[in-house]
UniProtKB/TrEMBL annotation:
Keywords: Lyase
GO BP terms: fatty acid beta-oxidation
Name listed for the protein in its UniProt record: Enoyl-CoA hydratase/isomerase family protein
Signal sequence range: none
Matches recorded under SUPFAM superfamilies: ClpP/crotonase
GO MF annotations in UniProt: lyase activity
Organism, scientific name: Streptomyces griseicoloratus
Chain segments annotated as transmembrane: none
Gene3D superfamilies assigned: 2-enoyl-CoA Hydratase, Chain A, domain 1 (3.90.226.10), Lyase 2-enoyl-coa Hydratase, Chain A, domain 2 (1.10.12.10)
InterPro entries the UniProt entry points to: ClpP/crotonase-like_dom_sf, Enoyl-CoA_hyd/isom_CS, Enoyl-CoA_hydra/iso, Enoyl-CoA_hydra_C
Family: Belongs to the enoyl-CoA hydratase/isomerase family.
């Protein structure tokens, strides 16, 4: 793993930290490759039961594409005609977003500062966002004559509604933490000094929870957004059968009857 992305697994929690604070955690190629590999590892590792996505520094969660590197890549494309620069969407952004959104375990994003462009997209791909009161969000794409990527055209309308999503994409602006909470982008807003502790506590609680049920909840919500009621009810039946046959369900029922706190195994 590159130094630009830190990866640690402890007690079922994978913590992924963007680590370019001097560049506001902008996404150069090295960082994108490392982040893609980290989120894929976390998503597929059975020892990982929850993921915390965060960033080093105080100014930024992630400001999106590293435009200094991007300028050089565009110039090289013009000279060679290769047209490789924008392949980063397919090679990096798409796999990162899919791994976060489709991971069979909960993903928490701790947004410590500016989340712009793909940084905003990665935060939206998480299941729950805890946001510092000093943080902000910006779609940014139209400001550099680009369209949405990093899943924002899918996630943002589902969070804020299609009309508001169009507004935020066509007229990019900074969205403060309180407005982000009112729009549903932020699940919780906390003082900046408390962010890391609050986020870790939340993610660790999820890492000790009923992992099979959490995976089913994620799958059912995503399915229900794109399918009619009748098909969604069938999917709920399928997923409830899966959750109901898990060891954790038996543990939970027994603990409830015995008035004890369940100790889940994640299976």
């Amino acid at each position: 793993m590159a130094d630009t992305v830190l990866y640690e697994v402890s007690d079922g929690l994978a913590t992924i930290t963007l680590n370019r604070p001097e560049a506001m955690n902008a996404l150069n190629t090295e960082t994108k490759v490392a982040l893609r590999d980290a989120v894929r590892s976390a998503a597929t590792d059975d020892a990982v039961r929850a993921v915390l996505l965060t960033a080093a520094g105080e100014r930024a969660f992630c400001v999106g594409q590293d435009l200094k590197e991007h300028i050089g890549l565009l110039a090289a494309d013009r000279e060679t005609g290769a047209g490789r620069t924008m392949s980063t969407v397919r090679e990096h952004y798409n796999p990162i977003v899919r791994a976060l959104a489709e991971a069979p375990k909960p993903v928490v994003a701790a947004v410590n500062g500016v989340a712009a462009g793909a940084g905003f997209g990665f935060a939206l791909a998480a299941d729950y966002r805890i946001v510092a009161d000093t943080a902000s969000f910006n779609t940014s794409f139209a400001g550099v004559a680009l369209t949405a990527d990093s899943g924002i055209s899918w996630t943002l309308p589902r969070v804020v509604g299609p009309g508001r999503a169009a507004d935020l994409l066509l007229f990019p602006r900074s969205i403060g933490a309180q407005e982000a909470y009112e729009l549903g982008i932020a699940g919780r807003v906390v003082p900046a000094a408390d962010l890391r502790g609050e986020a870790e506590q939340t993610a660790r609680a999820l890492a000790q929870g009923p992992t099979v049920a959490y995976a089913a909840i994620k799958e059912s919500v995503a399915y229900g957004l794109t399918h009619p009621l009748s098909e969604t009810l069938e999917k709920e039946d399928e997923l409830q059968s899966r959750a109901g046959s898990s060891e954790d369900h038996a543990i939970a029922v027994r603990a409830f009857v015995e008035k004890e706190k369940p100790r889940y195994l994640g299976r």
